[in-house]
Amino acid sequence: MVEPSTFAFNIMIRGYAQSGLNHEAILLYIQMRCEGLEPDNFTYPFLLKACSDIKQGKGVHSLVVKNQDFQSEIHSLTCLITFYCSFGDIESARLLFDRMPERNVVTWTAMINGHVKQKRYKEGLELFSQMRNTGIEINELTLVSVLSACASLGAIEMGKWVHEFIDRHCIFLNPKLGAAVIDMYGKCGNIEEASKVFKIVPQKSVCTWNSIIGGLAMHGCGEEALEMFSQMLTSGIKPDDITLIAVLSACTHSGLVEKGKEIFYKMRRDHKIEPNIKHYGCLVDLLCRAGVLDEAYEVMSNMPVEPNAVLWGSLLTACAAAGNANVELAETAMERLIKLEPSNDGNYVLMSNIYAAKGRWDDVAKMRRLMTERQIFRNPGHSLIEIDNVVHEFMVGDGRHPCSKQIYSMLEDIATSLREEDYAAVISL
Q: Where, by residue number, does the polypeptide cross the bilayer (predicted)?
């Protein structure tokens, strides 16, 4: 092309970015500017796709700020918000979001989804409440993010509201949205409603099946989960690695040890799925819960990848739960955990409890000294409860809640009633 236009450069920049040739895409933008061509509404969003780190993205942000035509251009600013969220920089995204003179459904959804992906679920739901008050039309992508936050918080009332909103506005229950509704009900404790929704989803994809199998697994319905897995295979849907995690989890929560081992060792042959560390984690958890700790340790020792902190933590927890704790195995696990997550207070507490159960008080004192030397303190426990679509969070000794006096008074009444019934709590370090 003798004189390529901005449109032609945009297409090439996007092509390079989508092909993973990020450096070439950026060089092409520089060439375009050197030839005197001005960017349009699509240039910066395409250029952002070529940014492989936060520093480059901020460089594009500076270009947007310098160009008066784009300081309030909603498409470019929304893409910047999505970019920041994808790199976990929620603060920069929120700062940009708050300064935008105009926002559309894509902008709000990007912001809500960013918070949810960073596990800032409560803030995500607060944003959704603000979005509802603006009168902007809500789409299925927004609802998927909100349902994910509800599932993680156990906010079933908000989840029910979303489900009713879907029905009221005749929003098509596509596989992804259907899976989100099923997952929400499953994680919020209503597996019956999750099963009802599963039956009415018109098109069931692998994610839809994964949600119902995972929900059944979580509720200890191992046999039902395996039956659902069988129906999935019969329907012609090919399982993915997440499906196998859900199935193995079902075996774990229902104590189906032999069945779980069979599925794990045949997954490569039957489903062409290579076990990853999460599948090994499910197998180790299955064996640990069954009390066969030596076999669990053998699996970990022969894994093709290094066991992570989750696996060693499962082994340590199983050692602590065993009636006749295997101290040597627990010490092996603890040795690895100190290297992998040296600041995790729970591991030190578990190891101390194992020593205490064996009457090894010198080792208990040693573990406490180690925590003191490393300035490791027990994280206060916290709980969440949803009332009238508002999620309340409580921590140990927390006095921030406006109803703290009434709450502690009620807790004292409960404690008194328990004492009258001769209830005795089991207290460990």
A: none
**Does residue 20 come out as left (phi exceeding 0), alpha (psi in the -120 to 50 range) or beta?**
left
3-state secondary structure of 376: coil
Count Cα atoms within 13 angstroms, Cβ side, for 277.
9
Exposed/middle/buried for residue 324 (C-beta within 10 Å: 0-12, 13-18, 19+): exposed
Q: Is residue 195 helix, strand or coil?
A: helix
Cα–Cα dist 144/130, whole Å:
17
Q: Compute CA distances 373 → 194, 304, 376, 377, whole Å.
A: 49, 35, 8, 11
Q: How many whole angstroms separate alpha carbon 249 and alpha carbon 286?
A: 8
Cβ proximity of 125 and 150 under 8 Å: yes
